[in-house]
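4.2 Preliminary Data

To establish feasibility before requesting continued support, the project team ran the inverse folding procedure on a target of 176 residues. The structure was first converted into the token representation described in Section 3, and no sequence information of any kind was made available to the design step. The complete token record follows.
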């Protein structure tokens, strides 16, 4: 439910002929990250760790908030977009994301067994969740990026790496 700014990102991957990737900029096209080699080859024939995924720097969360606010205003939908309604709409969209994963068992990072159509559907459903989350935060006057930073700081205190490394226990289960 959001208009885009019309920009299209381009993916660039180059192979210098030596058998390993020297550059791989994983940019998204229409919000879907292209498939990249899962592991790059080292010169000695070994395997390197998979490259880390990164989001594109634009649009910012504020840009997305503004675009969605314009979209909503143009349609006179603010009358329907109260916090409760946005929350319930977001929960419905989360259900649609869950439906895409239902009955698949464990799914590998990067979704190597998914078709392009399935990836696009996931991209759309995750976008719906994000759009509703951003709009809900706006309506509740929560500065989401700042709230995330504060929450991450709290999580660092609750889950110090020296105590929790490699464990999935809840913070209340740890002994000092």
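Position-by-position output of the design step:
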């Amino acid at each position: 439910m959001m208009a885009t700014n019309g920009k299209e990102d381009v993916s660039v991957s180059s192979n210098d002929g030596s058998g390993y990737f020297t550059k791989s900029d994983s940019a998204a096209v229409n919000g879907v990250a292209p498939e990249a080699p899962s592991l790059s080859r080292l010169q000695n024939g070994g395997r390197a760790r998979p490259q880390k995924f990164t989001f594109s720097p634009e649009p910012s969360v504020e840009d997305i908030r503004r675009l969605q606010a314009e979209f909503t205003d143009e349609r006179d939908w603010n009358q329907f977009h109260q916090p409760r309604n946005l929350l319930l709409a977001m929960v419905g969209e989360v259900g649609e994301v869950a439906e895409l994963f239902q009955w698949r068992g464990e799914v590998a990072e990067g979704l190597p067994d998914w078709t392009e159509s399935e990836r696009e559907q996931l991209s759309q459903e995750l976008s719906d969740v994000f759009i509703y989350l951003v709009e809900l935060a706006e309506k509740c006057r929560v500065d989401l990026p700042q709230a995330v930073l504060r929450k991450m700081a709290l999580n660092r205190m609750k889950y110090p790496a020296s105590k929790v490394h490699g464990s999935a226990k809840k913070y209340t289960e740890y002994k000092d």
